[in-house]
Design goal:
single chain, alpha/beta, 11 helices, about 15% strand, binds nicotinamide-adenine-dinucleotide, lipid biosynthesis, enoyl-[acyl-carrier-protein] reductase (NADH) activity
């Protein structure tokens, strides 16, 4: 991709764990399109993942932050402004983790203290992130904030469990903060509802491989890849989409509008 759509833009990208991560692909695309950015993940993920390898290749600084910690987020955005040399034009929140899914608990037998932790990591972290950006006045005018979500926020996908409610909450936070950020300094806030994608988080859901194939057959364009998601994110970080805000945008090859595709029955 040769276009320099994001030339001069400064960003912060959460959630790249390894080269399968959607955020990893977003970072690759943003770098190709001329953006500079910092990369962040939870300290524990930095030990188990391969973020440092990406950072070295793209010449981006890694700033560890647990997205549930206000203190870590304050340090992240203050430091990012210093490193990047100005206010932040775009932020990607690509964070999801369910304790109950990870431990194989059925939806009718969830542990509610784990559920609250899941909500904190997967959804409340988005509010915390926006609040720190808002109060610290870190976003540049006409900036763009994106969160990644899934259609289980609107329809029932039983094995997605409590992540469905996490995503519904995340989408609602994005809409509400879209109002406040729009009024403050024309910053837009949206969520992208992505196809099933083969990543660590995706593969943690029971029956994911079979479901991945089902969604691929249901979608007239097939499942959208992580790379394609990166390209879509780049358009939403660019100046070409300045009036798109408070939206949940489906990036799913048409899946969300299908009732039945004969291909999926074969
Ligand atoms: N894979 C899919 O099928 C799919 C589909 C739609 C939406 N999404 C969403 O895309 C986003 C990215 O997930 P992915 O599929 O690339 O998987 P991934 O496992 O590569 O990324 C999830 C990231 O969340 C990070 N994280 C977890 N707890 C954190 C914390 N406390 N602080 C900071 N970071 C933390 C992990 O370290 C990891 O980098 C998630 O929001 C996910 O729900 C994924």
């Amino acid at each position: 991709m040769s276009t320099q759509l994001l030339a001069g833009k400064r960003g912060v990208i959460f959630g790249a764990l390894d080269n399968q991560s959607i955020a990893w692909q977003v970072a690759e695309v943003c770098a190709e399109m001329g953006a500079t950015f910092t990369l962040t993940n939870a300290p524990v993920a930095l030990r188990f993942g391969s973020l440092n390898e990406l950072a070295e290749r793209l010449n981006a600084e890694v700033i560890p932050a647990d997205a549930t910690s206000i203190e870590d987020l304050e340090n992240l955005f203050t430091r990012s402004e210093e490193v990047l040399g100005g206010k932040i034009d775009f932020v990607l929140h690509a964070i999801g983790m369910s304790l109950n899914v990870r431990k194989g608990k059925e939806y009718t037998d969830l542990k509610h203290d784990w559920m609250l932790k899941t909500f904190d990591i997967s959804a409340v972290s988005f509010h915390k992130m926006c609040q720190v950006l808002y109060k610290g006045d870190h976003m540049a005018d006409w900036g763009s904030i994106l969160g990644l979500t899934y259609i289980a926020a609107q329809r029932t996908f039983p094995d997605y469990s409590e992540m469905a409610e996490s995503k519904a909450l995340l989408e609602s936070f994005a809409r509400s903060f879209g109002y406040h950020f729009g009024e403050k300094n024309h910053v837009r806030v949206n969520t992208i509802s992505q196809s099933p994608t083969m990543t660590t988080a995706g593969k943690g859901v029971k029956g994911f491989t079979e479901f991945f194939d089902y969604a691929d057959n249901m979608s007239p364009l097939g499942n959208a890849s992580a790379r394609a998601c990166g390209e879509y994110c780049a358009t939403l970080f660019s100046d070409l989409t300045r009036y798109v805000t408070m939206q949940n945008l489906f990036h799913d090859g048409g899946f969300s509008s299908m009732g039945m595709n004969p291909k999926a029955l074969k």
